[in-house]
Amino acid sequence: MMLAEAGQLQEQQKEERDALRELVMSRTVDGRQHRRRRVLLPALGLGGVLTVLLGAGAVVATQWGPWNYVQDEDIVIAREWVDVDGTSLGSCESRLAADELPADALNDARDYLAALDTESLDPDPEVVASLLVAVNRPDRMGQLIPGTQVSDYDVTHTGPVWSQGWWSDARILQDGLVSTVFAGMANDLTAKWPELDSADSPIASKIQTQCTTDPAGLWDE
Fold first, then answer.
1. For 10-20, how does the pLDDT look when each residue is reduced to its tens digit (9 = 90+)?
2. ∠55-67-122 over CA atoms, to 5°?
3. Cβ proximity of 181 and 121 under 8 Å
4. Which residues are within 8 A (CB) of 61 and not within 5 positions of it... i.e. 6 or more apart?
């Protein structure tokens, strides 16, 4: 980086970090998309920001920062991740608040989440495959979910490759697990509330995930 650019980069860093936090905190997902096999990943407009924050020598987080997006969660999803060889990949914790749902269905959603045994659940392999394609690590599929390969799924990525530093194997697996939890909740709710299975009334939740592989200081402000 040119020295003349250093001051400008420092001034912009808080804005960029805020944009990154906004990107990774908000996971408003339409539950119906889990019934479609084909996944199309959009281009990531913040690729440059991720590169700035995760350049050479970046320090990773050692403990959780503030839960400043989901402060009153309905479920905590925590997991220590390892690959198929038992190598540690890092730990992640996700907090999900179902308060984005219609009031009539909110109690049912909270009852479902309260009774869920997340330790017995596996990551959604299609989500894992999609994210590995987005970060150009398709060869990692079999190391993260045994007996699988990316070609088992019809996934397509357009636009710049996502930051490999930010999207660690641990975060990818955690996103796959969160998707499993969310899809199960969505299926349970639409069975009881068929009117939620429409574009006019999507099932959505607030979700915030932190991993030990995250950049240090990302959640501090």
1. 344 555 555 55
2. 80
3. yes
4. 210, 211, 212, 213, 214, 215, 216, 217, 218, 219
Quick one: CA dihedral 203, 208, 210, 215, positive or negative? Answer: positive
- Answer yes or no: are the C-beta atoms of 29 and 205 closer than 8 Å: yes
User: Residue 188 and residue 3: Cα distance in Å, rounded?
Assistant: 56
Residue 126, judged by CB atoms within 10 A of its CB (0-12, 13-18, 19+), counts as: buried
The whole-angstrom separation of Cα 127 and Cα 176 is 5
Query: pTM of the prediction?
Result: 0.77
With a pLDDT cut of 90, the percent of the chain lying above it is: 39
**Residue 166 token pair:** 């930010």
DSSP letter assigned to residue 60:
B
Contacts of 157 (CB under 8 A, 6+ apart): 41, 130, 133, 134
Cα(218)–Cα(221) distance, integer angstroms: 7
Neighbours of 208 (CB within 10 A): 22
pLDDT tens-digit map of 77-106: 999 999 999 999 999 999 998 888 888 889
